[in-house]
């Protein structure tokens, strides 16, 4: 019984290690490269009936590009210079609030 249990545990450990080892080259071979996550949301706010999002670029060596995603409206795209913070206007208070800000390659 102990041999059988040891064989099952060993087989499970090896299959898990092989699964992790094979997943990494598969992701690299697919050609999908992720944009660096430089743009971060500081806060969402409304001022004088206009909606804003305060963004900051955490990358101190490169310009970062972003997209503000708002439901049922065109996406607002832009760029942030290195190591800056900026208030971006994306609509009025009658428009829906932005869902999120997506980093994208420049």
UniProtKB/TrEMBL annotation:
Signal peptide span: 1-28
Top-rank lineage group of the source organism: Bacteria
Alphabetical keyword list: Signal
Protein name stated in the entry: Secreted protein
């Amino acid at each position: 019984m102990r041999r059988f249990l040891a064989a099952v545990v060993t087989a499970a450990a090896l299959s898990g290690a092989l699964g992790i080892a094979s997943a990494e080259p598969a992701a690299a071979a697919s050609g999908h490269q992720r944009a660096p996550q430089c743009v971060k949301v500081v806060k969402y706010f409304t001022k004088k009936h206009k909606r804003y999002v305060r963004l900051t670029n955490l990358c101190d060596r490169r310009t970062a590009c972003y997209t503000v995603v708002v439901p049922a409206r065109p996406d607002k795209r832009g760029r942030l210079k290195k190591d800056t913070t900026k208030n971006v206007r994306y609509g009025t208070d009658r428009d829906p609030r932005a869902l999120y800000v997506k980093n994208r390659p420049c």
